[in-house]
Input
Amino acid sequence: MSNSDKAKAGMIASKLTLLERLGTNYYPLANTDGPGGIIRFLEISLAAERTFAPETGQLFEDHLEPMLKKTGSPVRDRPIGRSRHAA
Output
């Protein structure tokens, strides 16, 4: 999604807004442990935004996933949008 400068700026702004709102309990969460996991994901994603180079032809998601794996964050084993029950 962040393969252009305009898209990248929009994604960074959105992630920063989410972090700010999560820090003030703006969003009620079903997870009673709090927003720690979401905050950590957004922090890693912002770090990935800083080091992503779209001119390599790589997708942002392919740049982000190894960073998530390195930190022990769960990464999906299936494409987003596909049911885990799909044949």
Observations:
- The helical segments are 5-23, 36-51, 60-70.
- Residues 78-87 have pLDDT under 50 and may be disordered.
- Residues 49 and 57 are 15 Å apart (CA to CA).
